[in-house]
Fold this sequence. Notes:
This protein has 2 domains: 1-68, no CATH class; 69-422, no CATH class. 63% of the residues lie in helices and 0% in strands. The chain is built from 19 helices and no strands. The longest helix is centred in the N-terminal third of the chain and has 28 residues, at 126-153. The chain is globular.
Amino acid sequence: MIALALCLLAFGMTRWAGKRSLGLGLVSLLLWGYLYGIVRANLENVFCHFLFDAALVGFYLAQKNAFNDPADAGRAAALRYWTLGLMLWPALLVFLPFQPILVSLVGLRGCIFFLPMALLGSRLKSEDLMQLCTGMVCLNLLSLAFAAGEYFQGVPKYYPYNAMTAIIYGSTDVAGGFYRIPGTFANAHQYGGTMAASIPYLVGGWTEGLTRKTRLLSVLGIAAAFLGILMSATRQNFILAAAMVLVVVSGTRMKTSRRVLFLVLIIGLVGVALTNERFQRFKSLGDTDYVGDRISSSVNRGFFEILFDYPMGNGLGGGGTSLPYFLEGQVRNPIGMENEYARILCEQGIIGFTLWLAFIVWYLSQVRRVFSKGPWASSRRLVWTYCVITLAIGTIGEGMLTAIPASAMLLLGMGWTSAAMRAEDARRRPVRRPNQVVAQPVWPAHVH
């Protein structure tokens, strides 16, 4: 009953917040995404698997009018068609008798449930982004507090051993035989992935914040995100974080004082990592033979065999989508490999795989929007960098489209960076002319 009550609470809370604003709705949604892993692990109830789903349904219902907003029709017209196409094909596959209906429905969720986040991302305004940044700061600090407890007291204090935590207890490859730290998430990869996904928005809150308090909070959130990535001991997310550091240092326009502060922050984190062996799992990236073997096995093993043996796919849920433990035994002819695109091929066949490949090519072709000048330009570039690297990493791992809440954040970012900036945001700052002093605008209290 507690798990069912939490699902209803998540639905109601996210729907209430989403009606107030898109930004508040996103913060509420992320709250349940951050808590999903630790709640599910400790309650061990079937309804806990649907906790984030309930929150996302409430959020979608709160934003239902936004999907038909004529003001955004021109800005995101192509994105609307791509979203519809990517959702329609998997929906048709449910009616084919490849897998039991419950397995197919869970697989359908993994294929389409987060896709509308891209459309909502195209509607983000400055005030929504500032609300989102503030919420991320609080959530990152909350998760870091749990991570610190797991670091000093041990993961078993927070995560009992059961079917939902088996992946956590199987990850004891940190120096000294310690566990990878999951924070409040279902596993360490989702913790590190979510922290990496939050960094671009927090950098935006730092560079675009109108008050010193807002900028300081954003810096704290950035520090918490980088520490979380180190504690999660996940190499892919370390690569993501390193790439974003390079973009900030080399490709972001900011005041000299802020650049120095950012460099001091990074140097401090590097010092922490180099003095603590538990934070140094990323060093295995220097083993070129291991990395080469890992990439080769993930990208090449069995891909063409799957293509020839299952040209129409093995059915939704039959190619590697994460299933609840009580459905895993019902999958017919289970196949899969550690490659997100192979998973799409396994489940949706060549048609679904081609649709996704074409969508990614289209997304990359919108890069000109990312590098246009204007407010939030630095954040947009970082979000684009995060999305592109995540799409590339999908060739050597699974979970790109099913991680909670990182997948929702990925698609939100793809939607935001593939659409043109909203007109009111593009006009937000006055143009400074030579030899002319322009007063900074004073915004109403409710506008950021």
